[in-house]
Amino acid sequence: MLKDALTEILYIMMGIVCFYSVYATLKEKSHPSKIPTALFWGLLGIIFTFSRIGLLWGNKNIYIPDIYTGYMVIILTLLSAFRLVKIGKFDESTSEFKQQMSQKIGNLIFVPALALGIVAFIVAQIWTKQLGSLVAFWISTVVAAILALVITKGKVKEMADDGRRLLEVVGPVSILPQLLAALGAIFTAAGVGDVIASGIKTVIPQGNILLGVIAYCVGMALFTMIMGNAFAAFAVITAGIGIPFVIAQGGNPVIVAALGMTAGYCGTLMTPMAANFNIVPTAILEMEDKKYGVIKYQVPVAIAMLIIHIVLMYVWAF
Amino acid sequence: MIKLIGILIIIVGFILKLDTLAVVLIAGIVTGLVAGLPFPKIVEILGKAFVENRYMSIFIVSLPVIGILERYGLRERAAYVIGKIKAATVGKVTALYLVLRTLSAMFGLRLGGHVQFIRPLILPMAEGAAMNRYGEIKSEDHETIKGLEAAVENYGNFFGQNAFVAAGGVLLIVGVLKELNYTVEAIDIAKASIPIALIIMVVGSLQFFYYDRKFDQKYGIKTRPKKENRQNA
């Protein structure tokens, strides 16, 4: 209960970042697309903050029905598809100021950045069972934010503006991971996985261990590429291929399953469907190629790793 | 077979470079309709999954912190610190991060992230190392460095995480196998995931050092004038 309530605080904080964008966008005098942009971040903020708001005080009957959220997601998508979400104006500091401050503050500037990870780790170590890693994440963010304000002597307003700047740099693509997860849910409800698993089954001959191993590893990678998520692929492909064609032929279940999952991760490296790993970073790093900028460097490593998986499973699991 | 139409829509949409969000939404709705799900049901599944996966966007919370640190020169400082290390190269910086990232994932530490680490720290360090060694580099090579730094985060995160006994992937494996009537222990799955964690450190590093060689050939190694060296010493 406490864990759910504290987790909800994280989503409220995410909502606040969005709501600040709404406020700043509406206040801007000559925003190129004021109302649609405010609407986008506003709806997203509402979904983050209020979709399960009742959990905050332990009443799970107070929430936004999923069908309304679904319609809001459709509106978000339309706003993005018609290019109505635009970046506002920001007062970013000059590069001279940055250089000057970086010399003045020195290596202390690293403290808040490292605190993000380290505080989350410590909190998670002590209270994992009670709190979960999501709660540790926002606690560490609050600690890091305070440290950042103390060390830089910056203003809260600057922090809010900078949060907005980065949020809008990432832009509407920030909802892509969640939208793809929703697509995965529809695929699952429609039974797409079963169609694929039975399709692969018909082409693998029984009784050949190497072909079974190849089919399982490649199947995991391919289905992960389609779903954008190895977790979604794992149950379907392990039941459909891993068990009958690898484990039933004498493969050690522990080794086969462990390698099967990471074989799926090879697929994650190669697909735009894994948007939070492969697409959102192109926005975060302000890359020119917004679709394959990251993936094209990952493909050779992913293929090499996939081959290593096949060899390792064949040699080690039997 | 008709159920696979969603996958076709995605592939065609990506090839034609249509708006990604719209393509994904249409693929979902069409797949649901051909599978016989009523439209309101599809919208409901869409909304439910969107809400349940809000955690995927937690990076949004750290944006204000990273933003203000950038305003006060975090990236410049990261580049400056690495600039003092004469032997630093893009490949060495990135390979070192790969080892640290993989190890921290193996211990269940969340010391990473494109927002929290790559953009404010690792990318400026790699670019600083490149500038230091080669002087100015072409914009396509800046893009290459960005691509590699985005990739290294994924390599370490993906292939390191399952060596941690409480990782989501490990627990999922145990759960799925249990449903399929195979009882395995999480600790054994974690142990069986160690070799791959070690292998990615090698394979990833090979890629990064390959780009070092490529850059060395393209630009030649610039030795700094002595005077400047003395100032920095």
Automatic annotation (TrEMBL), chain A:
Alphabetical keyword list: Membrane, Transmembrane, Transmembrane helix
Membrane spanning residue stretches: 6-26, 38-55, 67-85, 105-127, 133-152, 173-197, 203-223, 230-248, 254-277, 297-317
Pfam families linked: DUF979
Superkingdom, natural source: Bacteria
Protein's UniProt name: DUF979 domain-containing protein
Organism: Caldanaerobacter subterraneus subsp. tengcongensis (strain DSM 15242 / JCM 11007 / NBRC 100824 / MB4)
Taxon lineage: Bacteria, Bacillati, Bacillota, Clostridia, Thermoanaerobacterales
TrEMBL record, chain B:
Membrane is among the record's keywords: yes
Lineage top rank: taxon: Bacteria
Keywords linked to the UniProt accession: Membrane, Transmembrane, Transmembrane helix
InterPro entries linked: DUF969
Stretches that traverse the bilayer: 7-35, 55-74, 158-177, 189-210
Keyword Cell inner membrane: no
UniProt protein name: DUF969 domain-containing protein
Lineage, highest ranks first: Bacteria, Bacillati, Bacillota, Clostridia, Thermoanaerobacterales
